[in-house]
Amino acid sequence: MACIDPAELVQSKIDKRLTQYRESPRLEGVMRAYLGQAAEAQNLACRMLDFFDVDTAVGDQLTILGKVVGWPRDHRAGQRRPVFGFACADECGPPTIPVAGFCEAEWDCGGPDYVPFRFIDDELYRGFLKARIITNRGDYSRHGLTLASRAVFGADAVIYREAPGRVAVATGRLLSGVEISIAHLYRQALPIAPGVRLDIWHGNGPAFGFGDGWGGFCDGSFPVQITLN
């Protein structure tokens, strides 16, 4: 962001003083002193905005932005507990629920379905913030949903299916185990109008279809729907 040089800002205000005061060096000195302090403060505030750009902010800067847009790093029921099992190779298709092996999954079947989750990965968090910004604008259009979906999933995300009261987004790629386990959070972050249900589909690449974000005949894949409650 281009910030005005304090000296230029002060001079622009000095130039506006009344003619009868232009020959008073003492008054000009006082004006420059007070205007200089205000100009420095404005310049500092302007430069601070560069540190809170959602595209470049990291760490605590991103955390502060998250609080501003209403999407904190910590979510009390943010992650679905993984089911004990093992990831399957290509022959059985993409997973539809979070699965983990011996050291990660919990055996206690009586525990809560969802546990607290913290966005540690800045890039994962950044995508959610970008989607949330679009949602805060109230942009529930197809264009808004596409932009927000590509912010969290990548450039190949598309609106896969539409029906009255229901819309599905194809991610255009395989989601990680963590992303599958927090899939319900996409419903809260993406711009979905009240009364409309969002479904998430993922696969081994761009979904079969034609146009921007679709895979075409040779490279298109058939995604599967992630199981959400």
Automatic annotation (TrEMBL):
**What does the record give as the organism's lineage?**
Bacteria, Pseudomonadati, Pseudomonadota, Alphaproteobacteria, Hyphomicrobiales
Question: What is the protein's given name?
Answer: DUF2612 domain-containing protein
Which species does this protein come from?
Antarcticirhabdus aurantiaca
